[in-house]
Every structure is written in structure tokens, then in C-alpha cells.
Amino acid sequence: MTEQAKTWQIALIQTDITLGDPSRNRDYLKNQMEIAASSEVKPDVIILPEMWNTGYALDIIHEIADPNGEESREWIAEFAKSHGIHVVAGSIAEKRDAGVFNTMRIFSASGEEAASYSKIHLFRLMEEEKHLTSGDQIVSFELDGVLAGASICYDIRFPELARSLSLLGAKVLFVSAEWPHPRLHHWRTLLMARAIENQMYVVACNRTGASGKDSFFGHSMIIDPWGEIVAEGGEDEEIVTGSINLSLVDQVRSKIPVFDDRRPHLYKL
Ligand SMILES: NC(=O)CCC(=O)C(=O)O
């Protein structure tokens, strides 16, 4: 299939997360992914929320984070391969020698790990910077020959990241999040802005439920490169689905040639 004709059916697993209980979260999520995989219209891509293994159990994060992400990598790669589905595996708390990272891993439908991205902007309002180590790389990856970019939650407040990824050629921005009330307006507006300004699809999966003082509103979204909402979840747990047509990216980019009209020598970044 040429890229021009390519469409992806997407399933966003918008779930609650149990604080500090990786094995319960794994089992629950596995079950949700099985349900998504067996739906009438089989997804090409499944995406999960942020820090789904532990939630923001930051006080004990060094004890419960997945060492090198190994346990999670093993079962997700196996899931991707056995179902023939790409998995943008949200993010997990992952323990390495340098500290605990908030890391997204991406698996192709053959079960290969396509890329991994560790959150580069740590969110002070939830004290990430006190407990986590930030990543130091922007990450793009290819699925079915389509270039996509990785981002995690607070990252969407930094237009430089999505712009850098779109300049690399990314046509889809995947976002995994634990984004709480009362900032629903910011979430929706920022996601829409990233889609419109970069003329790319934005596929964003947020969790539901409550944890400590935070309550998470879901509203996972798929937004097309023209800024139209393809799908949006409510506030409760659900599997949000929608289809994206990658040829729309080129159509929008040729209708309003933003990338040709940029004046980078005038910008101070
Ligand atoms: N987990 C996060 O990065 C939350 C970001 C957030 O809530 C925001 O307002 O930004």
C-alpha cells in the first residue's frame, strides 16, 4: 500500500491506574488491550496512557519502577507480535543506573521495539523533577513507513518539540498523558494547536480516575491535521477509537504551505 492511501485504525486505551501497583495495572491493561484487539474493526495502532505501571507513586518510585523496562517490554512485544498491532506503549516508570525515567516504548506489529523516548520536560506541579530523571533526546520512529513522533503529557506545552518532530517529517504526534482537572481547556487547546500549526495528526491518550489530590479527566483525542476532532473520549474509562488517513497530512500541507513559508532566520528560539 502506498503511503498516500494509508489509513490507520487507532484504539486509545483510556483507563484508570492503580497507584503503586504495577502487576495489577499490567493485568488490567492487558485485558483492555485484548478487548481492543478483538473489536469488530481491529486496530492498527494501540496507544496507552502515561506512567501506567505505577501512577504517580513518586515516594516509592525507585522501589517499584520496572528495571530497564524489561518486564513491560517482554509482554508488550509479545502482544504486538501475536496480534499484529503496533503498540505505542504509553509510558512507564523505568529504573536505570542513572535514575528513574518516564519512558515511552514503541513496538511495531512484528514485535520489534521501534523506539523509546524518555520524557524531556518534567512537570514540577506533580513533583516529577524531585524523583525522576529527564530524557535528553527527541525521538521519531517509523511504523509502516510513516514517520511519527513521541511525546508525554507536559511536553505538549512546548511547541518546539512538536515543531522539531514535524520538521523531521513526522506526520503523527503520539501523546501519552496523566493530565488532571482543572486544565481540560489547556489539554484540548494545546493538542489542537499542535495539530493545526504542524499540520499533523495528534493522537493523545489520557488516563481517568483519581489519585491523591489529582483527578484525571480522560478526553483522549484524535485530531486531524486541519484541527478537526476525529474522536474524543468522555471522563470515564473507555476505549476511544477512530481512523486516520495519512494522505490528509500532505493535502493540508499543500493547501496552506506553512513549512515553505517559515522564516527561521528571524526566529529567536
Ligand atoms: N503528567 C503531566 O505531565 C501533567 C501535565 C499537566 O497536567 C499540565 O498541565 O501541563
UniProtKB/TrEMBL annotation:
GO terms for molecular function: hydrolase activity. Keywords: Hydrolase. InterPro entries: C-N_Hydrolase, C-N_Hydrolase_sf, UPF0012_CS. Transmembrane segments: none annotated. CDD domains: nitrilase_5 (cd07583). Residues 8-246 form the CN hydrolase domain. Belongs to the carbon-nitrogen hydrolase superfamily. NIT1/NIT2 family. This is Putative amidohydrolase. It comes from Fontibacillus solani.
